[in-house]
């Protein structure tokens, strides 16, 4: 039985592959947590009503603080709240 790592239920990487690629979990910097909270407050003040956006804001803030590019299909939200993050978007086949 292999152990898997799942990110928001979208990507599952078997432990064998993680080990072969020497992947590691990176701790979220404290400034990113603060930035995620600020983004959530802004979202709520602007009338946002979803209650499951903190994870997205945490991911965006981590990318912003650490200067990581971010692979996403949700360019609108990430560019609105984290304008300095370089977004990598998959091309949509037609």
What would your notes on this structure say?
This is PIN domain nucleic acid-binding-like protein. GO terms for molecular function: DNA binding. The model is unreliable at 4-9 (pLDDT under 50). The longest helix has 16 residues, at 30-45. This protein has helices spanning 15-21, 30-45, 54-66, 75-81, and strands at 4-7, 11-14, 70-71, 87-88. The protein has 94 residues and is an alpha+beta fold. The protein has a domain at 29-88. It has 4 helices and 4 strands. The strands form 2 sheets. The protein has a two-stranded antiparallel sheet with strand order 1-2.
Number of DSSP-assigned strands: 4
What fraction of the residues are assigned to beta strands by DSSP? 5-15%
How would you characterize the largest beta sheet?
A: 2 strands, antiparallel
Low-confidence stretches: 4-9
- Could you tell me the radius of gyration in angstroms? 15 Å
Q: Please tally the helical runs, counting DSSP H or I stretches of 4 or more residues.
A: 4
How would you spell out the order of helices and strands?
EEHHHEHE
Instruction: Report how far the terminal alpha carbons are from each other.
Output: 38 Å
Mean pLDDT: 85
Overall 3D geometry?
globular
Sheet/helix structural class: alpha+beta
Helical residue percent band: 40-55%
Q: Write out the strand line-up for the largest beta sheet, numbering strands in chain order.
A: 1-2
Which secondary structure elements does this structure contain, and how are they paired or packed?
Layout: E1 4-7, E2 11-14, H1 15-21, H2 30-45, H3 54-66, E3 70-71, H4 75-81, E4 87-88
């Amino acid at each position: 039985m292999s152990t898997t790592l799942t990110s928001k239920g979208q990507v599952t990487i078997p432990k064998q592959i993680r080990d072969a690629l020497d992947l590691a979990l990176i701790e979220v910097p404290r400034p990113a947590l603060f930035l995620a909270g600020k983004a959530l407050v802004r979202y709520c003040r602007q009338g946002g009503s979803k209650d499951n956006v903190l994870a997205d804001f945490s991911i965006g803030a981590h990318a912003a603080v650490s200067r990581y590019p971010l692979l996403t299909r949700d360019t609108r939200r990430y560019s609105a709240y984290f304008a300095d993050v370089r977004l990598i978007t998959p091309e949509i086949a037609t």
